[in-house]
């Protein structure tokens, strides 16, 4: 058994993958940010400093921090991985044979660290030092991107998620994020940390077109005791949930999946923007979305991958039963209706639990943080004035790789 194991949302966090964004944020502008799924442009230097505070807060809690850009750079040092990534990310169908070959030749000669930076942060036509005989270069302006930046890589939670003894390498819903998944496929396959280790890849490992079976880690809560709570959101489809559930059951890694339906809008893009797990019996919830009448199903299955869905009358009871607790304590977003809506938008509910009852959250969400405090939850505050503009909090910005169960 490998030591990659995530047994809960609240047990002691031991190892986590995060990404300090630089080049991608430099390439984020008012004219392209909407396409790249950001609501605004960020101050790059300030966002970097805020992210460093986040990383150091994790380290102070005894968590080993892996940085995505370093991991990718180290993966590119392996010739097979580099060939695979270049042919996948710079494919002939995307650029045409001639231009794809020209870009691959240019990139292949770069130092690994610089190549990693470009794959994550983008490359404009102005930055390409060669003249291609392809029509592509002639038809684009210098400011157009050959490789689009991936600013959402900041949210490492979504691209892959560890559930008990394995990982789901997630097929993403939006085109602006689909290339991210290949970086994780390469890291989990070739990086020395993971290569040859014994862990399960549940879903999304090969490069198939997954069509409508999309799933993102922000919707997946490993609540523990063999149960997983998954939101069906703007980005995670019922087909994606059933595919992951079937694989979990087939590998004997989970007993049940509780699937909740969410509204399909941006303010609650993923389940973890409206609900997170803070202590065994305690969840943070945004009551405008996590209402009593949320539709909810319990999925069970067998070793053959068959999945059976049964509707549950009330999601809270389903979770209480799964966790074996008498009564769930739901802490709602703080302040009056206006303040609560603002704080939810600024990720007040998207906290990262580092050990039972200890969470990392943005310091700006004063009303909600005060409620957590009164409920006996310790909030380790981090600045998020810039990072929060990407619409993601501490949980979104972290991919736990090793965490104790409950």
TrEMBL record:
The Gene Ontology terms for molecular function here are: arginine deiminase activity
Q: In which pathway does it act?
A: Amino-acid degradation; L-arginine degradation via ADI pathway; carbamoyl phosphate from L-arginine: step 1/2
Q: What is its EC number?
A: 3.5.3.6
Name of the protein described by the UniProt record: Arginine deiminase
* Keywords from the UniProt entry: Arginine metabolism, Cytoplasm, Hydrolase
Q: Which Pfam families does the record match to this protein?
A: ADI
> Where does the protein principally reside?
cytoplasm
The record lists the catalysed reaction(s) as: L-arginine + H2O = L-citrulline + NH4(+)
Location comes to: Cytoplasm
Its source organism is Photobacterium aquimaris
Q: Which residues form the active site?
A: 396
User: Got a GO cellular component term for this one?
Assistant: cytoplasm
Q: Which family does it belong to?
A: Belongs to the arginine deiminase family.
Q: Name a biological process GO annotation.
A: L-arginine deiminase pathway
State the source organism's domain of life: Bacteria
């Amino acid at each position: 058994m490998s030591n990659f194991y995530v047994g809960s949302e609240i047990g002691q966090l031991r190892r986590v993958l995060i990404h300090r964004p630089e080049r991608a944020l430099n390439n984020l502008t008012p004219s392209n940010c909407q396409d790249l799924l950001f609501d605004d442009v960020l101050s790059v230097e300030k966002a970097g400093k805020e992210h460093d505070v986040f990383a150091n807060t994790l380290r102070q809690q005894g968590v080993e921090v892996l940085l995505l850009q370093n991991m990718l750079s180290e993966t590119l040092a392996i010739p097979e991985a580099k060939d695979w990534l270049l042919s996948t990310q710079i494919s002939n169908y995307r650029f045409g044979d001639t231009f794809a070959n020209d870009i691959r030749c240019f990139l292949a000669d770069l130092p690994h660290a610089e190549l990693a930076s470009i794959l994550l942060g983008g490359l404009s036509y102005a930055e390409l030092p060669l003249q291609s005989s392809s029509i592509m270069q002639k038809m684009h302006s210098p400011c157009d991107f050959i490789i689009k930046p991936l600013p959402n890589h900041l949210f490492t939670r979504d691209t892959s998620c560890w559930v008990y003894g394995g990982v789901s390498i997630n097929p993403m819903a939006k085109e602006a994020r689909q290339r991210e998944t290949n970086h994780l496929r390469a890291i989990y396959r070739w990086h020395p940390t993971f290569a040859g280790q014994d862990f399960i890849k549940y879903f999304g490992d090969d490069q198939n077109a997954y069509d409508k079976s999309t799933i993102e880690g922000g919707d997946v809560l490993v609540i523990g005791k063999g149960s997983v709570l998954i939101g069906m959101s703007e980005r995670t489809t019922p087909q994606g949930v059933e595919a992951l559930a079937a694989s979990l059951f087939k590998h004997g890694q989970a007993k049940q999946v509780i699937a909740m339906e969410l509204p399909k809008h941006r303010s609650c893009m993923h389940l973890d923007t409206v609900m997170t797990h803070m202590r065994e019996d305690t969840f943070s919830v945004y009551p405008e979305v996590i209402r009593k009448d949320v539709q909810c199903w319990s999925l069970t299955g067998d070793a053959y991958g068959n999945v059976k869905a049964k509707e549950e009358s009330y999601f809270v009871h389903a979770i209480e039963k799964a966790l074996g607790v008498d009564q769930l304590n739901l802490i709602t977003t703080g302040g009056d209706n206006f303040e609560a809506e603002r704080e939810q938008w600024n990720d007040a509910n998207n906290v990262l639990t580092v050990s039972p009852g200890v969470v990392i959250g943005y310091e700006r969400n004063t009303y909600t943080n005060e409620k957590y405090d009164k409920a006996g939850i310790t909030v380790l505050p981090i600045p998020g004035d810039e990072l929060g503009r990407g619409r993601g909090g501490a949980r979104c910005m972290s991919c736990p790789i090793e965490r104790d169960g409950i």
